[in-house]
């Protein structure tokens, strides 16, 4: 599966160069010219990594990074002309995964991207065939789900939704993202297919939409399973 990279930079030339370069490297590219537009893309598409400029209008990179970390753990590489130690420290405190100073070498940036994606994929990979979410056990080989050692019968799509969220804890998936990933079709805004499947899944798990013991609703954004459960 090709990785989906989002470049956010107000410099059109840099955006186009990065899109062209990484497209040739085999990545799927998305682009935005400011932090506000970038956040909207993150909420609507399955992004694997973000290349984020610091100095931008409307919403700068630092601000966007802080807002992003409220609902997502997508890896972020900051792109900036600032080379001061204090700027790098601020970036890492705000939640970036790497920091590269402009003008940068495309080969070096590409290697950093590959390294971070490799680490990210390892972190998200299931080390064995069992995924646990509190007292829920997901067997990824047999495609079975148990709660307190009692099997819960799920439909294929209910299982896929649960597996997607459980294997990417902390990451928020919008209904649009889930629909297009799992149903392989274009999402229509008035389509409640995903919502109904999540509702049925919650009922079978004994989950409560208000408390969100297993699946948490991020209102206006989507669904996630917390990192710490």
TrEMBL record:
UniProt GO BP: regulation of DNA-templated transcription
Keywords annotated in UniProt: DNA-binding, Phosphoprotein, Transcription, Transcription regulation, Two-component regulatory system
Modified residues (4-aspartylphosphate): 53
One GO location term (cellular component): cytosol
Response regulatory domain ranges (all copies): 4-117
GO molecular function list: phosphorelay response regulator activity; transcription cis-regulatory region binding
Residue ranges flagged as DNA-binding region: 128-227
A Pfam family recorded for this sequence: Response_reg
Ranges where the OmpR/PhoB-type domain occurs: 128-227
Free-text function comment from the UniProt entry: May play the central regulatory role in sporulation. It may be an element of the effector pathway responsible for the activation of sporulation genes in response to nutritional stress. Spo0A may act in concert with spo0H (a sigma factor) to control the expression of some genes that are critical to the sporulation process.
PANTHER family noted in UniProt: REGULATOR OF RPOS (PTHR48111), STAGE 0 SPORULATION PROTEIN A HOMOLOG (PTHR48111:SF10)
Name this polypeptide is given: Stage 0 sporulation protein A homolog
The species this protein was found in: Clostridium autoethanogenum
């Amino acid at each position: 599966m090709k990785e989906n990279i989002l470049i956010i930079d107000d410099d059109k030339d840099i955006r186009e160069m990065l899109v062209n370069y990484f497209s040739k490297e085999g990545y799927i590219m998305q682009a935005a010219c400011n932090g506000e537009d970038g956040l909207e893309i993150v909420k609507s598409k399955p992004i694997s990594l973000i290349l984020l400029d610091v100095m931008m209008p409307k919403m700068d990179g630092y601000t966007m990074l802080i807002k992003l970390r409220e609902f997502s753990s997508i890896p972020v590489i900051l792109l900036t002309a600032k080379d001061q130690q204090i700027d790098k420290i601020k970036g890492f405190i705000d939640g970036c995964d790497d920091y590269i100073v402009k003008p940068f070498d495309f080969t070096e940036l590409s290697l950093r991207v590959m390294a971070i994606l490799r680490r990210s994929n390892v972190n998200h990979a299931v080390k064995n065939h069992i995924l646990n979410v509190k007292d829920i056990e997901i067997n990824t080989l047999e495609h079975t789900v148990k709660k307190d050692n009692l099997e819960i019968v799920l439909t294929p799509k209910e299982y896929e939704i649960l597996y997607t969220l459980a294997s990417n804890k902390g990451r928020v998936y919008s209904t649009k993202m889930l629909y297009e990933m799992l149903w392989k079709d274009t999402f229509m805004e008035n389509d409640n297919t995903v919502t109904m499947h999540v509702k049925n899944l919650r009922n079978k798990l004994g989950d409560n939409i208000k408390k969100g013991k297993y699946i948490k609703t991020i209102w206006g954004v989507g669904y996630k399973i917390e990192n710490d459960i």
